[in-house]
Design a protein that fits this description.
The chain is built from 7 helices and 16 strands. The chain is an alpha+beta fold and 365 residues long. It has 2 domains: 194 residues, HIT family, subunit A (2-Layer Sandwich); 167 residues, HIT family, subunit A, CATH 3.30.428.10. A hairpin with a 2-residue loop joins strand 15 and strand 16. Helix 1 packs across helix 4. The protein is globular and about 55 Å long. The structure holds zinc ion (ZN).
Length: 365
């Protein structure tokens, strides 16, 4: 892998991740962009104990442009995009409309309270998986998927080193049904300056699990699913995938490394990364094979928090949470009264049944 860092015309960082032997990446961004938008806020919701990022400046961001106007395609025929090069393998750059960005000077998350507010510190990056506008993660070769994994690893290390970042979250939203605003195959990486609610919960659950004399919670969940087998989707040499015992969505899968104690992408071995580059695109193809339609999904990578206490870090190991809101070829599940108001999920598909369908789809994928 060859890594080439550069800057866009407004000072944002851009980094090319290329296979060895790719053309050199020396093109200059000729757009002369103005300095980006102002920083937003994080406010504390005292009724739930959660931080909420408020970024009013993002309403003008690009929304479902025509393929000929795609900002994530390479720059060709004089049409200047976000990527100055005329080709690329994988490229990462800072989001032009970030909800979280580098703070000015010293920054600290305030104590929770009725009026707790702070600049929305953090980092938002875009990861283009391929220069092919009509491509998708499901179509990536293992070598190309491996470049994406190398990019996630590089960015996890870099963002974890920022003192104001507490959680590095690589994710992909796919499909307009899930709210995608650009069709070009891409994902994002958020570096949060606070622990997201899902991670806070996981840490609390791990603490109470260990207080009952058990070992780590995630390790016990994996052991239970491996032994039970009814919700397994596949098990390979280094990875295991299953439908969660209490899945929220019609189709939902967790993918974990089998080796215990892998906190984040930086701790994977070469063999684990190589196998992930094969099994992950195949898992996404299995999703598409389920109902015979392209599935909308959210693919989110959980990693251990950074820049905090050791027991927080030990509570979370690297894993993927893949969720789709499609429950039938022409039916979507929307979060409504129970889910949106009460956060009380009601699932329409028994996890064992959805696992059976996923196992069959995995064989066809
Ligand atoms: Zn494109």
């Amino acid at each position: 892998m060859r890594r080439t860092p550069s800057r866009l015309s407004d000072g944002r960082e851009i980094i090319y991740f290329d296979r060895d032997g790719a053309p050199p990446r020396t093109a200059v961004d000729e757009r002369g962009l103005d300095e980006g938008a102002a920083i937003g806020e994080v406010r504390y919701d005292v009724m739930t104990g959660e931080w909420i990022a408020i970024a009013g400046h993002r309403q003008t961001r690009t929304h479902l442009p025509a393929a000929s106007e795609c900002p994530l395609c390479p720059t060709v025929d004089g049409r200047l995009s976000e990527i100055p090069e005329s080709s690329y393998d994988v490229v990462v750059f800072e989001n032009r409309f970030p909800s979280l960005r580098a703070p000015e000077g010293e920054w600290e998350l305030p104590e929770p309270g009725l009026d707790a507010v702070a600049p929305a510190a953090g980092r938002c990056e875009v990861v283009c998986f391929s220069a092919d506008h009509d491509g998708s993660f499901t179509k990536l070769t293992p070598a190309q998927a491996r470049l994406v994994i190398d990019a996630w690893t590089d960015r996890t290390a870099a963002l974890s080193a920022l003192p104001y970042v507490r959680q590095v979250f690589p994710f992909e939203n796919r499909g307009v049904e899930i709210g995608v605003t650009l069709h070009h195959p891409h994902g994002q990486i958020y570096g949060y300056s606070y622990l997201p609610p899902r991670i806070v919960r996981l840490i609390e659950q791990d603490r109470s699990h260990r207080a009952r004399g058990r070992r780590g919670l995630i390790a016990d969940v994996i052991a239970r699913e491996a032994a039970d087998g009814r919700r397994l989707v596949f098990r390979s040499q280094h990875w295991i995938a299953f439908v969660p015992f209490a899945a929220r969505w019609p189709f939902e899968v967790q993918l974990h490394p089998l080796r215990a104690g892998v906190h984040d992408f930086t701790e994977l071995t070469d063999a684990e990364r190589d196998e992930l580059a094969t099994v992950y695109p195949r898992l996404l193809r299995a999703f598409d094979a389920l109902l015979g339609v392209t599935m909308p999904y959210v693919a989110g990578w959980f990693q251990a928090p950074c820049n905090g206490p050791a027991d927080e870090r030990d509570a979370v190991t690297l894993h993927l949470q893949l969720q789709s809101n499609r429950r039938a070829p022409n039916k979507l599940k929307y979060p409504a009264g129970s889910e949106m108001s009460m956060w009380a999920y009601i699932s329409d598909v028994p996890p064992e049944q959805s696992a059976q369908l996923l196992r069959e789809a995995w064989e066809r994928a």
